[in-house]
Write a structure and sequence with these properties.
binds magnesium ion; 6 strands; 6 helices; binds adenosine-5'-triphosphate; Rossmann fold; alpha+beta; Chromosome segregation protein SMC
Length: about 200
């Protein structure tokens, strides 16, 4: 399974609907400073619910909506941003029944493609965040449960951010071991064991 395409609409510096295709094995994105490379990574973290707002370099969710002035001023009125992550699941790594169970309906279309979409909408008084799985409205936990079954989790190192490598190098051996346990999937069992011992 791999990301096939991202569709950014009004997200951060992407004021126009932008489709970004990805190759199966390796894709690099290059461009001058400030051109939006990191914003593309942020869009994946945002749509898949893998990071808090601070992790995607924003103070609040509505800062992720395109601001034509981009001068830090608060924009009022109705506006919204949307990001779609289209996963190529033609290898069937995520089974149809997993998608059906996460979406809570049989009506999920063809699961050779998995489409995770997130919208953030600002109104006069409030803001709202919505997640969709193959077009069906779902909760963040549904997306997280589904992705965790293929090893994509907020705690995981599926996305290695700037500074992560240095941080890992500077860690104590014990802290480094915890990361390896997390990646290997052992940490989850340690946590369950602790829970069981407490009961
Ligand atoms: P570098 O090479 O320096 O890492 P980059 O290509 O990773 O640069 P980004 O950090 O992705 O660049 O993009 C930064 C740009 O995005 C800045 O110009 C910033 O003002 C702009 N930006 C961030 N949020 C918004 C927003 N809500 N609306 C418009 N522009 C935004
Ligand atoms: Mg950058």
């Amino acid at each position: 399974m791999h990301i096939k395409e991202l569709v950014l609409d009004n997200f951060k510096s992407f004021g126009r609907k932008t489709r970004i295709p990805f190759y199966e094995n390796f894709t690099t994105i290059s461009g001058p400073n400030g051109s939006g490379k990191s914003n593309i990574i942020d869009s994946v973290l945002f749509a898949l619910g893998l990071a808090r707002t601070s992790g995607i370099r924003a103070e609040k969710l509505t800062d992720l909506i395109y601001n034509p002035d981009d001068d830090g001023t608060t924009v009022t009125g109705e506006r919204e941003a949307q990001v779609e992550v289209i996963l190529d699941n033609s290898d069937g790594e995520i089974s149809r029944s997993q998608v059906v169970s996460a979406a809570g309906t049989d009506n999920v279309g063809d699961t050779e493609e998995i489409n995770v979409k997130r919208r953030v909408k600002q109104t006069e008084e409030n803001y709202y965040s919505y997640y969709y799985l193959n077009g069906r409205s779902v909760n963040l936990s549904d997306i997280q449960d589904l992705l965790s079954q293929v090893g994509v989790t907020p705690e995981g190192y599926n996305v290695v951010m700037q500074g992560d490598v240095t941080e890992i190098i500077n860690m104590t051996p014990h802290a480094r071991r915890q990361i390896i346990d997390e990646i290997a999937g052992v940490a989850e069992f340690d946590a369950r064991k602790e829970d069981a011992l407490e009961e």
